[in-house]
Design a protein that fits this description.
The protein is an all-alpha fold and 198 residues long. The chain contains ten helices and no strands.
Length: 198
């Protein structure tokens, strides 16, 4: 019974992720999710309170996957520049290997909804994500650098990734994206180092 319930929940999450990335979170309906999962509407409510709970669950899982990718090193970076390069590479690999999760996490309308006071549980995974970036770069920084500056750096990394990969995905093959980001990435990394006074 539990195994079947887990399988159904997984099927609902997969269907929701597909629908959210095809149509956007706001435009997607519960009916479309259940139709895609080939289950009744009542089945969805046995597993999730509402569409918002599915969104939060999927965002939490996507953030966990992205953080695992961020924590996965080929070689441990020795400098701030190398760490920033690693962070951008980790995001790139995540965008290729987990495209739907990437699109869900960095959906423009979903990010705008974070400004709402009623979506605290949706905000939490994003805060955790920014804190992870801060934690990764902090060992390479002077302890005198203000925490707000480190948070701005984390936001800059997220913004660069969202902006570049969102637009590059339009009409570009993965190898074209990878080669075209190289010069931009070097300039971006140098700018961040300058911003941090390095």
């Amino acid at each position: 019974m539990q195994k079947r319930a887990r399988k159904t929940r997984k099927k609902l999450k997969r269907a929701a992720l597909d629908v959210f990335t095809e149509k956007s979170v706001d435009a997607a309906t519960v009916e479309e999710i259940t139709e895609k999962a080939d289950v009744g509407k009542g089945t969805l409510y046995q597993h999730f309170e509402d569409k918002e709970e599915i969104v939060v669950t999927l965002v939490e899982e996507a953030v966990k996957h992205l953080i695992r990718r961020i924590r996965s090193y080929d070689t441990v970076p020795e400098t701030l520049e190398e760490m920033l390069e690693h962070l951008l590479n980790a995001h790139y690999r995540f965008s290729v290997e987990a495209r739907e999760e990437f699109l869900l996490l960095f959906q423009g309308k979903l990010l705008l909804r974070l400004e709402s006071d009623t979506l605290d549980e949706l905000e939490e995974p994003y805060i955790h994500y920014l804190e992870e970036i801060e934690e990764q770069v902090s060992p390479y920084l002077s302890p005198r650098i203000a925490a707000i500056k480190i948070r701005r750096l984390a936001c800059a990394v997220a913004g660069f990734v969202f902006g570049f990969f969102s637009f590059a995905a339009i009409g570009m093959r993965p190898e074209e994206i990878e080669s075209s980001i190289q010069p931009l990435r070097r300039t971006f990394v140098k700018s961040l180092c300058t911003f941090l006074g390095r």
